[in-house]
């Protein structure tokens, strides 16, 4: 019987909802990310997985399976692309969890053929900490088999899944898609025009530097590409995943940011025209700065600077 205990619900709660929001850049996110395998496979060797990657797998477990140390191995590796490098990163994951002693399925996701929404992987890692090293540097299209030691399963999750003391958990995870953790591409020459400069922390989080505290706000919305990515171009009817920061031009204070929390999904058909104009046509991986002057007549009391990192494109409405 298929069950959806708290460990699955926890991941679902972090699914990214659509919103109509009123230094040198790395050229390859996987360049410094090396996919490792467990030094021991005694436990994972007891798990046989068949079936096409991306669809619900057939799993046979030679029970009982015990391990004092979490093990993981790749059944399939995805093609080159964004890799899982951050616990605040978004991905589309499906998985089947089995009791290591009985071999029975204790939880599984829907394995929907379309319409899967991305979720922040920290939700899964919080429930099953052993999956964090098991999925580190994984790419979309990968299938990973992991056997989690009891110490690598959160107590609440073990109880929810009906696991006994010291019981292992078998996990088969299909990494359907991984989204960029930050903008990646080619740094663009700043055009000036009295606009602020974008600076970045090592994790890619942007900040704003003003060349002149008394610089005048542009009379109309103006955008500038800071990093040009090399992914697919955003279309006018796309839904995209972004990290963003908005800063008040006058006070220099951050008004909102998704950094440190969760990326946001934006529907290009419903966002304000200034945002759509700035992002449509830009390739995935780009970082775009947008300055929108105040317009009290339309309810915008502040002049705002937006910094968008375009992390991926998807049809979240499917």
UniProtKB/TrEMBL annotation:
Gene3D superfamilies: 3.10.50.40. Its EC number is 5.2.1.8. Residues 1-24 form the signal peptide. PROSITE patterns: PROKAR_LIPOPROTEIN. It comes from the Bacteria. The keyword Ligase does not apply. This is Peptidylprolyl isomerase. It comes from Microbacterium halimionae.
């Amino acid at each position: 019987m298929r069950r959806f205990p708290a460990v699955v619900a926890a991941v679902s709660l972090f699914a990214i909802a659509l919103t109509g929001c009123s230094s040198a850049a790395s050229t390859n996110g996987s360049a410094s990310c090396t996919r490792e395998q467990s030094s021991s496979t005694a436990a994972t060797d007891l798990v046989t997985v068949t079936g096409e990657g991306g669809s619900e797998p057939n799993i046979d477990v030679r029970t009982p399976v015990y391990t004092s140390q979490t093990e993981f191995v790749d059944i399939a590796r995805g093609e080159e692309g964004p890799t899982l490098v951050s616990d605040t990163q978004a991905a589309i994951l499906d998985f089947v969890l089995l009791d290591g002693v009985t071999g029975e399925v204790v939880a599984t996701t829907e394995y929907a053929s379309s319409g899967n929404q991305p979720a922040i992987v920290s939700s899964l890692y919080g429930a099953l900490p052993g999956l964090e090293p098991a999925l580190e540097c994984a790419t979309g299209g990968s299938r990973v088999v992991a056997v989690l030691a009891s110490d690598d399963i959160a107590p609440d999750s073990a109880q929810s899944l009906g696991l006994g003391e010291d019981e292992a958990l078998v996990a088969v995870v299909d990494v359907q898609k991984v989204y960029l953790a930050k903008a990646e591409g080619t740094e663009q020459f700043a055009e000036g025009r009295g606009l602020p400069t974008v600076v970045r922390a090592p994790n890619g989080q942007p900040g704003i530097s003003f060349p002149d505290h008394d610089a005048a706000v542009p009379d109309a919305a103006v955008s500038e590409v800071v990093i040009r990515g090399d992914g697919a171009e955003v279309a006018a009817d796309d839904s995209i995943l972004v990290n963003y920061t908005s800063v008040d031009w006058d006070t220099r204070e951050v008004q909102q940011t998704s950094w440190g929390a969760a990326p946001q999904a934006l529907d290009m058909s419903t966002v304000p025209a200034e945002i759509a104009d700035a992002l449509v046509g830009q390739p995935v991986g780009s970082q775009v700065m947008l300055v929108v002057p105040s317009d009290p007549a339309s309810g915008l009391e502040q002049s705002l600077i937006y910094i968008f990192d375009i992390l991926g494109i998807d049809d979240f409405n499917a």
